[in-house]
């Protein structure tokens, strides 16, 4: 069985990636294959990398406050490309609790805020992956 492939992405102008790197390491330690985009990626770049790398999950980390714009834009582009039904999309970072229902309504499967144990994120990915890993 191949490992779950996860794209860890930093959308927008946010210049802080410590949380993304912590998540990337935890996912690797859990046996997942991780591709990290680096800082300051556009939604289009994230979607194109996800398609090129044939990922199972896009995990976006955002601290800039632009989450209500950038995260739904990624979902929209995935739908335009016809791959949304194959890719689990999650987000994390400093996101107000009041914004989480909106993001879920827009297609983000789950939001993980600061202090969430990495094991919770790992378990969520394993339990909600959209396509069978063979």
UniProtKB/TrEMBL annotation:
Cofactor(s) needed by this chain: adenosylcob(III)alamin
Keyword Ligase attached: no
Keywords: Cobalamin, Cobalt, Isomerase, Metal-binding
Top-level taxon of origin: Bacteria
Matches recorded under SUPFAM superfamilies: Cobalamin (vitamin B12)-binding domain (SSF52242)
Domain B12-binding residue range list: 3-132
Single annotated GO MF: isomerase activity
InterPro entries assigned: Acid_CoA_mut_C, Cobalamin-bd, Cobalamin-bd_sf
CDD domains, A to Z: MM_CoA_mut_B12_BD
A Pfam family that the UniProt record links to this protein: B12-binding
Protein's UniProt name: Methylmalonyl-CoA mutase, C-terminal domain
Organism of derivation: Tepidibacter thalassicus DSM 15285
């Amino acid at each position: 069985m191949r490992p779950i492939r996860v794209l860890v992405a930093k959308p927008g102008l946010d210049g802080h990636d410590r949380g993304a790197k912590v998540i990337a390491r935890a996912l690797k330690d859990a046996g997942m294959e991780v591709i990290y985009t680096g800082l300051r990626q556009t939604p289009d770049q994230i979607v194109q990398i996800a398609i090129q790398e044939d990922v199972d999950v896009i995990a976006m980390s955002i601290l800039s406050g632009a989450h209500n714009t950038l995260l739904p834009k990624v979902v929209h582009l995935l739908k335009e490309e016809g791959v949304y039904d194959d890719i689990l999309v999650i987000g994390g970072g400093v996101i107000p609790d009041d914004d989480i229902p909106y993001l879920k309504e827009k297609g983000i499967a789950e939001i993980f805020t600061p202090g969430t144990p990495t094991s919770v994120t790992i378990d969520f990915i394993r339990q909600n992956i959209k396509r069978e890993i063979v």
